[in-house]
Structures are given as C-alpha cells and as structure tokens.
Specification:
Blueprint lengths: L1 H21 L6 H22 L4 H20 L9 H12 L1 H19 L5 H18 L7 H28 L5 H43 L7
Helix pairs in contact: 1-2, 2-5, 3-4, 3-5, 4-5, 4-6, 4-8, 5-6, 6-7, 7-8
Length: 228
Amino acid sequence: MKKVVTPAVMVITLLGVIIWQLFSSTTSYYLVSVAILILSMLPFLISFERSDKSASELAILAGITALAVAGRAVFYLVPQVKPIAAVVAVGGVCLGAKKGYIIGCFSMFISNFIFGQGAWTPFQMVGMGLVGLIFAAVFNKIKCNRISLCIVGFLSVFIVYGFIVDTSSVLFLSTDLDVKSALAVYLSGLPFNLTFAASTAVFLFVFGEQLVKKINRITIKYGIDNYG
C-alpha cells in the first residue's frame, strides 16, 4: 500500500503546484516547468524502483553512472568538453531505455554536487536522461558502430539536451516571456551546445564502440536484462 500512496502523494502535490501557479496572479513559469519535469521523471524512477534488480545489475548501473560523473569532473576546467553524454549514450545502448534514462538523470544530479545544484538541475537531468533513452531506442533498430554513434550523439545532445537546458535559461533569465528574448537566449546557447555535441561525438568515436562491446560482454555474462 505504501508503494502506491507515496507516488500518488507526490503526483498530487506536483499537480497542485502546477495548478496553483497557473491560476496565480504572479505565475512562475520556472516553478511550473520544474514541477512538470519532475512529473516526467516519476514513471521511470517508480518503474525502476518496483522492478526486480540483481546485485550485478545495480553494480553495472552504479559503475556506468560513476564513470559518467568522473568524466564530467575530470574535464572540469574545459567548458562544454565533457564525456558524460557519451558514457550515458553507451549505457542506453547496452542497458535499454529505462536504465539509460536513469543513468542520465542520476549522472547529472550527482555531478552537480561538484558543478553546483540549482533550479536548472531537473532540466539537465531530463535532458541527459533523454539522451540515454534516445540511444536505447535508436540502436534497438540500427547497427551500432563508430559513425552511427557519433551522428546520434551529436544530434541528441545538440537538439534535445541543448534545447531543454536552454529552455531553463529562457525561463530563468526572462522576466516577461516573449519571442525576441527567448530567441536571443537560444541563439546565445548555440556555441555551447555545438561544442558539447561535437565533443560528445569525438568521445564516442574514440571509445564508444569499444565500451559498448565491453559492457555487452558483462551483461551477457551476468544475465542482465537490457530492456527490463
């Protein structure tokens, strides 16, 4: 019963916040967006929490997440040049959509204890989670190789992750939402998104295919379900 009540309370609370803000005289679109993002994460987190998980499965999830966090931390001094998305992408390819999303979410959440937590964190979590999910969906249909990894990595980071994180900047920096101010923020973020996407493609070209093969061998050895 407790497993049902707790998620229900969270959903009702978040929906209450959204409705309250939308009908408030001083609506905070930032707060509404964060509430919606948390709602979008709940199905993945609840589903994962309720699934049967072996010790080996948790170990591989923790290992890939730690590798993603370490990769972001090592390149701390190089703006936007981070292998975190490349590692999350590999996790999505090898472990499936649900686990890829979880790896993306938690890698951003944990690494932000180094880079700084804030209202932007849910946007980064959802954006990186979607990168893992996209890789799982795409490479469930097509063959995984260096070129395909690079192309999907560049596009998913540049278009999906970049747009979601830039949206947080639009909501945070713009007191009055209008097309001109939003467009200015999105355009100013293009160089950063391009750098992050290009570096992700490079990292995937260098180690992506080899890391996929190594993790796949581990999942086969320990009987880890790639789509559970």
